[in-house]
Amino acid sequence: MILVTGGAGFIGANFVLDWLRGSDEPVINLDCLTYAGNLENLVSLAGDPRHVFVRGDICDTALLADLFSRHRPRAVIHFAAESHVDRSIHGPGAFIRTNVEGTFSLLQAARAHWQSLAGPERGAFRFLHVSTDEVYGSLGPTDPPFVETRAYEPNSPYSASKAASDHLVRAWHHTYGLPVLTTNCSNNYGPFQFPEKLIPLVIANALAGKPLPIYGDGMNVRDWLYVGDHCAAIRAVLERGRPGETYNIGGWNEMPNLEIVRTICGLLDELHPDSPVRPHADLMTFVADRPGHDRRYAIDARKIERELGWRPAETFATGIRKTVEWYLENRNWVEHVQSGAYREWVQQNYGERT
Ligand code: NAD
Ligand code: DAU
């Protein structure tokens, strides 16, 4: 079986669902259910013995030791993290705790487990660390995209904490020989993404007739990848990646935020013709910028294609259409995650922006 951390979050839940669609190998899903963890994402697995959910913290060393000795996973796929840049600006402590200390605890527990294995079991064990392109910092308009050998220049508390975790993972390989794999991926979008991130926030606000907040001039550029493609890339790295290597994962799809928001508004005009707020683009509102806002990210994903044969299957046009359709069909899901705590966050993050 495999141990997945953070499997009730956006990418982790998509990964668990994809995994069990294609395999009968069981999954232990360790997640402490922060505001971002949601068991509704996994409701289709209710009663499925291949999915074992454990509510717990990756910083809990006793729990980790127990899980490894009881279930003896052949691999760890580590998604659990605090993941939202804006939240890291308001409260960096949780990011250091989960992303740095939590990764440290998990590495130690995985190392003890791996060292207890022998023969082929030991040779086959893998620790796959899911990281981000934000560790590389910000690009100028004509700079080449990020390659795996680029120096780390993280600029936000979130990206600094992820960079620290990447360094720990690297060190556990070089010092102890733990067979690790690291992936650095660009911006994901798709079903089950919490409506604090740009794409689901814009869809949810547009459906509610609320302003669509665009930071700064809206010309910050991100590379966008459909979440199902990210899950396929992680499976390829797990199966065929070389221990100790890092793999950049991206969608070959750079776009400024304004274009993303306009595309979503156009799709909502088409797919939701009864909406009282058409054209949805009328809701677009420029607000104060994010402090330290990275200008541009771009991924050179040639290594994973060359070595592992992975390329994204979705274009942005196909992926964003599926995503908007999913949010239109799952309005209950959005309503359920927009709890009191989430409303407080909206007030904190957007309340004082002009
Ligand atoms: P998310 O915020 O949606 O989910 C994170 C999950 O981790 C939640 O279920 C949460 O409950 C759980 N979690 C948080 N702290 C925990 C702890 N201490 N112990 C156990 N569980 C804990 O995040 P996501 O967008 O799905 O991102 C998953 C991973 O992928 C993160 O490591 C993130 O850095 C990385 N990543 C995300 C993106 C993106 O665009 N979303 C892109 C590249 C990399
Ligand atoms: O690049 C990968 C990263 O992508 C992941 O590591 C992070 O976990 C994930 O959150 C994401 O980070 P970003 O900061 O790029 O994502 P976010 O959706 O928060 O913002 C995308 C862009 O949209 C960014 O330039 C800021 C802008 N933005 C965001 C919000 C929430 C707005 O203009 N308005 C908004 O309300």
Walk me through the topology:
Elements: E1 2-5, H1 10-22, E2 27-31, E3 51-55, H2 61-71, E4 75-78, H3 85-90, H4 93-116, H5 119-124, E5 126-132, H6 157-176, E6 180-185, E7 187-189, H7 198-207, E8 212-215, E9 221-226, H8 227-240, E10 246-249, E11 254-256, H9 257-271, E12 284-287, H10 302-308, H11 316-329, H12 331-337, H13 340-350
Parallel strand pairs: 1-2, 1-4, 2-3, 4-5, 5-6, 6-10, 7-9, 8-12
Antiparallel strand pairs: 9-11
Helix pairs in contact: 1-8, 2-4, 4-6, 7-9, 9-11
Bound molecules: nicotinamide-adenine-dinucleotide and 2'deoxy-thymidine-5'-diphospho-alpha-D-glucose (DAU).
Structure in words:
- With 354 residues, the protein is an alpha/beta fold.
- It has a domain at 2-189 and 225-253 and 293-315: Rossmann fold (3-Layer(aba) Sandwich), CATH 3.40.50.720.
- Helix content is 45%, strand content 16%.
- It has helices at residues 10-22, 61-71, 85-90, 93-116, 119-124, 157-176, 198-207, 227-240, 257-271, 302-308, 316-329, 331-337, 340-350; strands spanning 2-5, 27-31, 51-55, 75-78, 126-132, 180-185, 187-189, 212-215, 221-226, 246-249, 254-256, 284-287.
- The strands form 3 sheets. The protein has a 7-stranded parallel beta sheet, with helices on both faces.
- The longest helix has 24 residues, at 93-116.
- The termini are far apart.
